[in-house]
Amino acid sequence: MLFGLPRQIASQYIRSLQTWSVSHSVHCHVVPRVAVLMGLLGIAMSGYSSRQLALHHRPATART
Predict the structure, then answer these.
(1) Is 34 helix (H, G, I), strand (E, B) or coil?
(2) Which residues fall within 8 angstroms of residue 28, CB to CB, at 6 or more apart?
(3) Is 53 helix (H, G, I), strand (E, B) or coil?
(4) Residue 5: beta bridge partners?
(5) 5-41 pLDDT tens trace
(6) d(Cα 27, Cα 55) in Å, to the nearest integer?
(7) Residue 27: CA count within 13 A, CB half-sphere
(8) What is the Cα–Cα distance from 42 to 28, expressed in whole angstroms?
(9) Whole-angstrom distance, CA of residue 33 vs CA of residue 22
């Protein structure tokens, strides 16, 4: 018995911890990659937007 728990509950608890650790390790590898991808996408969109603004924007005429 594990800490006074019945054998069936202890084995289910250990199995759930093992499942969590596997999903957690996958999660730890995926999240940084997605964050980097989203950051690069944001930088690319910002550059594209700035380029389109520079190409198609007509400056306002100065009023005196």
Answers:
(1) helix
(2) none
(3) helix
(4) 2
(5) 566 677 777 777 777 666 666 667 788 888 999 999 9
(6) 42
(7) 6
(8) 22
(9) 18
